[in-house]
Amino acid sequence: MTALPAQARPAAKPAIERIRRLRPVPSAAVGTRARPRLAYAVVALASIGAIAIAQLLLSIAMTQGAYEMDEQLLRQAELRREEAKLTDDLDRLESPQYLAMNAEALGMVPNSDPAFLRLSDGAVIGDPRAADGAAAAAAALVPNALIDGVPPVTEQAAGQTASGGKGRSAAPAEGAPSSPPGLSGGLPTPATH
Fold first, then answer.
1. Can you tell me the distance from the alpha carbon of 63 to that of 69, in angstroms, rounded to the nearest whole number?
2. Dist. CA 112–CA 126, nearest whole Å
3. Average per-residue pLDDT for the chain
4. Chain centre distance of CA 114
5. How distant is the alpha carbon of residue 20 from its chain centre?
6. CA 102, CA 99: separation in Å to the nearest integer?
7. What DSSP designation does 106 have?
8. HSE-up of 25 (CA within 13 Å, CB side)?
9. pTM of this structure
10. Residue 142: CB partners within 8 Å, gap ≥ 6?
């Protein structure tokens, strides 16, 4: 046999005690439990309301910006049409046929024998003669259908542009000479301010 004493085993517990049971909490502990505070609920609802209002205001601002952008795009298209119309009017008024028609209306006549001055040595090239008005330029070699019905400068009412609209008056500004300076032994120089 052994010299050691035999170890005693504890007695087995009944199976019912091994299973833990739920026990009801005493009624005094139920009343002491912490309740949610009313301030937390108010802060949560106020923050949700502030977020909703901010989102609504942002949506209104973006919609207003879209309307303004659409209005500006329409204005830009209108200005582009106006620019195209004015460019066409300018091209019409810059045409050689319109310039020749206005020159004739002002009493100018074409010179069939032009002479040129070479500035490097002052030599006159060609036979300088005064224009006699015999050569009429009334019939343009290349007609311009765009200027049909546009009156020459002499037939327009005061303050009216060539396209028929109202413009600035053609009266000279104060202090400006009413007629171009005459030749006095040389080429005229432009008047400066």
1. 10
2. 11
3. 75
4. 49
5. 81
6. 5
7. T
8. 7
9. 0.43
10. 97
